[in-house]
Amino acid sequence: MTRSVKSNAMDQSKQEDVPRELVFSKMERLIREMQNPETGVPVRSQKLFLTSIPCAFMGYDLVEWLMDRLDIEDIAEAIHIANILCQHGYFFPVNDTKFALKDDSTLYRFQTPYFWPSNHQPDNTDYAIFLMKRTLKNKQKHGLEDYEQEALARLKKLLCHKWEFVCMQAEEQVNLAKERKKTDKIVLDSQEKAYWLVQRPPPGIFSCLERSPIANKQTTKKAKTKEELKKRVEFFKQYICKPRTRLRQVLESLILRCKEYADFDPFISGAQPSNPWISDDTTLWHLNNDLVETPTEKRVKRWTISLEELLADPTGVVEFEVYLRKEYSYENIRFWKAVQGLKRGSQTGIADRVKDIYEEFLAAGAPCEVNLDSKTVEVTQELMRSPSRYTFDAAQEHVFSLMKKDSYARFLRSDHYKNLIRNAQQTAQKKKFFNFGASTRKKSSPAAGTSKRRNSGSHMTNSTVDLSLTRQPSVERPFTGKHSHSTSDLQDLETPSDKLSCSRLSSPSVSRDRVNDTVRSTLQVPRGSQRMEHSSSSLDETSSNLSLAVPRRTRNLVAPWELED
Amino acid sequence: MASDGGGLKIDNPVESIESLSKEVEKLKARLEEERQKLNDVALSTVAERLDPLPTLNIKPRRVLKGHQGKVLCSDWSLDKRHIVSSSQDGKMIIWDAFTTNKEHAVTMPTTWVMACAYAPSGNMVACGGLDNKVTVYPLSFEEDVSSKKRAIGTHTSYMSCCLFPNSDQQILTGSGDSTCALWDVECAQLLQSFHGHGGDVMSLDLSPSETGNTFVSAGCDRQALVWDMRTGQCVQSFEGHESDINTVKFYPSGDAIATGSDDATCRLFDLRADREVAVYSKQSIIFGVNSLDFSISGRFLFAGYNDYTVNVWDTLKCVRLTILYGHENRVTCLKVSPDGTALSTGSWDFTLRIWA
C-alpha cells in the first residue's frame, strides 16, 4: 500500500519526480559522509598567499576520499564523479566560477544543505533579490556579469509590481550581513553565489538540473477495476504453474551463445579486413552486402550456427534455396518465405493472400504441396475460417523444424556448402603465404574444415587468423566452376547459358567484379540497394568493364606488409 | 490500490476489489517462491572459468553535430551506416554517420520527439513524442520528406518508443498511456493493443528470433512484460528494479532480456528460468540507466547513464570492463550497429557519437 500513498502524493504535487529525488538522496548521503569531521574529507582554513580561506578542502583530498569510499580503481572515474557532484552544486571552487573539480590543491567549499538542489526550488523573486543585493555591495568584489545585468533588467520588468519589495529585501539582507563575522560572511557569500551559478548558469553552460517534460511519471494511473484484477488473478494462477528451466542450465546456454558468436563479434574479434569506423575503409560492408556472389568465409561459417542464422542472411537464403532445389524440397523454403511475407505484410488483402498461400502450398494437390502432419493440417484448416496474418504459424513452425532437422543438416554436409566454404572470400588471411601473382586478388583458397573453428575451444581470442594460417596447405584447389549460385543462376538453372558458365570458368575474377558492381550501386543509391535484386543481364554486361581500383586498395589494407616485401 | 475514493459510492465492490488485490499479491509471492526453487547457482560463478576478455579499446570515431536540442532517440538503418535521430527541439535528422553528413532534416510539429525508428528497408522512418502520435516519413531525395508524412496511430499520452517489427508494414509503439500498440502502416490502423502495465511504458524491444512473435516492454511500473504479438496477451512478467525502468533489450539469443533503470542498475532476466539471473551495479554508479544494448555475441553489455558515461559490462562475469567518457550531459540513447562494428550514443549535450 505504500505505493498508492506515494501516487496520491504525486497527484497532489505534479513537480514530484521520484527518480530524481532518488539520485539526489544518494548524492546527499555521500556528501554528508564527506563532511564527517572524522572520516570525511579534511576541511580547514587554508592559507593562500597572505589571505586565509576559511572552511575549504583541496581537490585531490576529495578525489582520494571518493576512491577510498566507493572502491574506485581508476582515478578518472573518481574525478568524473567529483565533477558531477560539483556541477550539482554540492561543493564549489572557492576562486573560480567554473564548476569543475581539479585533482590538485585547488580549494573547494561545501554548499550548505539549505542550498542543495533537492531542498530548494528558487523563483524569480529570489534571483532578483540576490542580484539586487550584489549591486548594493562593493562593486569590485560583487559586480554583476553581463548576463546577470541583463537578467536583472529583465526581472525588473517582469516583477515591476513588486520591485519595491525586492529592493527592500535586498537592502535588509545586506544590512543583516554586515553584523556577521568576516569569515562567516565570506563563506555565506560564496555559497549563495555558487548556488545561483548552478540554478541560473551563465549562457553556454549546461545545467544538470534540467528535467524532462515527463518528469511526473506516475506509477499507478488509476484504480484497477474488478475485471482487471480478476484477469490478473487468472494470469498469475497460470503463470505459477509454468514450467521453468533450472538456473545452471540456462546460464550455461547464455555462456555458450557468447562462445559461439565470439568470432562474429567485432568488439571481441575485430572486423576483417578492417572496421570501417576505425580504418575509414568500407570494404567490410561491400564484402557483406545483402546479396553477394561470393560470401566471406566468416559469413558462410556463421550459417552453421543455426538455421535461423542462415535464414537471417539474404545471401544465406539464396544459397539454401539453390541447394533445396537440387534436393527437390524447394517448396519448404518457399512456403516459409511466403508465410514470413504474410506475417510482415500489410493488413490489406490478408484474406486473399492467405487463400493464395493455402492453394499453392497446402490444399490437396497443390502445385507446391508441403508435407504437414495431420494435426497441423487440422489446426490450419480450422484457422482458415478466419484468415489472419498468423493463420499459418503452426504450419510454418512445422515446416521450419522439418527443414532444420532434415534439409539444413544435409545442407551443411553437402558439397554445395563445402564449395561455398572453399570459395569463400578470406578476409582475414595473410596472403603472404600464397604466391598469387602480382596484381589481382583472387578468390582464394581452401579452408576446408568447416565448423572446426567453432569447436576448437579458444573462442574468446581472435582465432581466425591463427587457425586459417596453420591449416592452410599452400596448394590452391582446382577451380570447380560450380561455386557460384546467385539469384541470376537461379533463373538460368534450367537452361544454363554456355556463355555465362564459360566466362566464369575462364576468368575467376568475374565474380569479384560482380561484388564490386553491387558495391558501386550501393554507393550511388544507398537507399535502394538494400533489397536490390541481382539482375543477371545487366550484371553480365557490366562485369567486363568493371575493373575498379578496389581490389588493389583492399589488398594493401589487408596486408600492408606486402608492399614492404 | 488507490481505490479509497471509490469506496464512497458502492460498498461491496470495494470489498471484493480489496480481496482481489490481496489475492494478486498472494499469488505474486507464491510465484516468487516458485522461481526461487530452482535457484542453484549464480551467473558470475558459472562464468568464473571463462578467460577474461581482452582489453577493450573503444574510442569515439565520429561526432554528429547538428541538433540544436537534446538528442532523445536514435536508430540505425540496416545498411549499417545511416542513423535517424530525434531531439527535444522537434527536429529529426537522417545522418550518413560514416561521412557525418546530414541527408534529411525534418521539423516535427511538436517538441520532445522521444522516439524514432528506421524501417528495415531503409526507405522510411517513424517518429513521435509529446504529440502522442506515431508519424512515418518515407525518405526520398526527390522531394521534401515532410510532404509525404503520414500519421499512423495516436496514443492518449506521449509516445516514448517505437520500432518496426521486421517489416515496413507495421509499427510497434509504447506510450505514457501505459499501453503498447501494433499498427498497420498502410491502413493507419490499430492491429493490436497491449494492456497490462501499471505505468508509463518507456521502452520496448522485439524478440530477435526470426519466427518469434514476442516482444518485451518495460516502464515506470518497474515491470518488464513479455507479450505475444498475436494474441495481445502478456506471457511473462519480471520485477526487481527499485525505480522506473527506462530501457529493455533482448539478449541476442532471444532467451533473456536486460533492463536498465533509474535505480542505477541493469539486470538480466532469463525467460526460460523465468527469473532474474544477474545484476550489473557498482557502488560508484549512482545515476540511472537510460539505454542499453548488447554486442553481437551478447558478451558486452553497453549502458548509457545519466552521469554522462557509457559503462561497458561483461555480461557473463557481471563486472564492469570500462567507462566511455565523452558526452557532456546525460546519455539518452545507445545502440550497437546492425553488424556490431560500432556503438552509437545520443546525449542531452546535443550530439551523437559513434564509438568503435
TrEMBL record, chain A:
Q: Where is the composition biased (Polar residues)?
A: 457-473
The cross-references to Pfam families, in alphabetical order and at most eight, read: DEP (PF00610), G-gamma (PF00631), RGS (PF00615), RGS_DHEX (PF18148)
Cross-referenced InterPro entries: DEP_dom, G-protein_gamma-like_dom, GGL_sf, RGS, RGS6/7/9/11, RGS6/7/9/11_DHEX_sf, RGS_DHEX, RGS_Egl-10
Give the organism the record lists: Limulus polyphemus
Gene3D superfamilies per the UniProt record, alphabetical: 1.10.1240.60, Regulator of G-protein Signalling 4, domain 2, Winged helix-like DNA-binding domain superfamily/Winged helix DNA-binding domain
Q: Which residues form the DEP domain?
A: 37-112
Residue stretches spanning the membrane: none
Membrane keyword on record: no
State the name under which the record lists this protein. Regulator of G-protein signaling 7-like isoform X1
UniProtKB/TrEMBL annotation, chain B:
Q: Do you know which SMART domains this protein is assigned to?
A: WD40 (SM00320)
Coiled coil ranges (UniProt) are: 14-44
The answer to whether keyword DNA damage applies is: no
User: Which keywords, in A-to-Z order, does the entry hold?
Assistant: Coiled coil, Repeat, Transducer, WD repeat
Please name the Pfam families in this protein's record: WD40_Gbeta (PF25391)
Q: What are the start and end residues of each WD repeat? A: 64-105, 152-193, 194-237, 238-279, 289-314, 324-356
Concerning SUPFAM superfamilies, the annotation shows:
WD40 repeat-like
Does this entry carry the keyword Mitochondrion?
no
- This protein is called what? Guanine nucleotide-binding protein subunit beta-2-like
Instruction: Give the taxonomic lineage as stored in the record.
Output: Eukaryota, Metazoa, Ecdysozoa, Arthropoda, Chelicerata
- State the encoding gene: LOC106463308
